[in-house]
Amino acid sequence: MANTPYDLIVIGSGPGGYVCAIRAAQLGLKTALVEKDKTFGGTCLNVGCIPSKALLHASELYEQAGHTFAKMGIAVGAPKLDLAAMMTFKDEGVDGNVKGVAFLLKKNKVDTFQGVGRIAASGKVEVKGADGKAQMLDTKAIVIATGSDVARLPGISIDEKRVVSSTGALVLDKVPAKLLVIGAGVIGLELGSVWRRLGAEVLVVEFLDRILPGMDNEVCRQFQRLLEKQGITFKLSAKVAAVDTSGNRLKAKVEPASGGAAEVIEADVVLMAVGRVPYSNGLGLDEAGVKKDNRGRVVVDGHFATNVSGIYAIGDVIAGPMLAHKAEDEGVAVAEIIAGQAGHVNYDVIPNVVYTYPEIASVGKSEEELKSAGVSYNVGKFPFTANGRAKVNLQTEGFVKILAEAKTDRVLGVHIVGPDAGNMIAEAAVAMEFGAAAEDIARTCHAHPTLTEAVKEAALAVGKRSIHM
Ligand SMILES: Cc1cc2nc3c(=O)[nH]c(=O)nc-3n(C[C@H](O)[C@H](O)[C@H](O)COP(=O)(O)OP(=O)(O)OC[C@H]3O[C@@H](n4cnc5c(N)ncnc54)[C@H](O)[C@@H]3O)c2cc1C
Q1: Which DSSP symbol is given to 420?
Q2: N or C: at which end does the chain have fewer Cβ atoms within 10 angstroms?
Q3: What is the pLDDT of residues 233-259, one digit of tens each?
């Protein structure tokens, strides 16, 4: 296969890279995909979205079995946790997904190479296998889709046993008595929820004075209260300065964010969830002259092109939200652009979901963003306590909030705290993609009884005419 000229070589097989390779092959480009790890699918399938959602699903059912089954007349007694079996369930889910990607790549006739890809020059990619042997591939275009890696705090080293990143938190072999989570972002709250449901005492330490930075404030305030009701405790405006690993229990030195006296908090496991950083180690970007910004992200223009002709980049390694579906859409768009089409990603309509219970989902602008941009807007809100399906399912926490431009009624943002919010947000994304007004959602027939009726009612509430409130 060496020296075969390709139209496109994609480096990295995460949701950005493998989707890009498949779309390019569909468009008739001779395409190769290079992956350094043993399996395809990147962070998302192997150590991110898929395994975390498997554990969130299983742990939520475990909690329901212990708390709500009896109320519905299902007598199962106190559920017993078999953590090893739960981990096997998760691993099988991951395995099925990564095999699915391998199948799709083969079906679409994408050539795959296992090894570390390095851009040797424009149009040349060297692939070095685990055995140290290198081969050089020629190509017209290169897409960098090398994703991201765990962000670390200086002075705290991750051993993936007691001081873990998300990767270690997905494979713990016993439930920690106490889990200290550093960072109240999506990953910290999702994995904190998993281990709280399975029996851990969970404390989340966050540097800022709020959880989920960047998301709508009202949503986050209510969400924090709900998580506290479930038993998670928060220490906001605080930072973990050090973790002493010398004893049987970990001792975290926690200080106020603004400085001041430190306290020592003991824990059995510390989860470092302070974000992710772009990953481009070993790619040869500097030698190839590819520009990065001050946060290490590959700089691209509106067509995903870097400053070096024929080299493009997508996904977590470039700017923008670090989300699998954003990477996928960029993968499709860049493949279409390379094939001479007009690929495009609408960054105003990228949904964001936190898969806890209840779920948080949003698309478009938050109230804070609209205020700071000086946009006049109307708010329509509807609580799940007034939704028939949520009531009968005993899932009444949360609300739907729709923000619509005052003058035109155009939907600018939708925010949901509630059961199945992650699925429900799709309706809002489609509506916004088509430039819908709140009136359009309000006049669309929604099936009864469904949770989605709360979306319709929130749209009605924009015009102050919801029926069930
Ligand atoms: C715990 C966790 C949960 C998450 N949950 C969600 C979620 O629910 N929803 C969501 O949208 N996002 C979620 N994310 C984020 C999501 O995983 C990322 O946004 C997504 O994987 C980015 O895709 P990517 O293709 O850019 O890169 P990645 O998925 O990181 O893939 C990059 C690939 O490139 C390979 N690679 C790197 N360098 C080289 C090289 N030189 N040669 C060959 N191969 C190389 C890597 O091995 C990797 O396979 C989660 C992340 C984590 C950690």
Answers
A1: T
A2: N
A3: 999 999 999 999 999 999 999 999 999
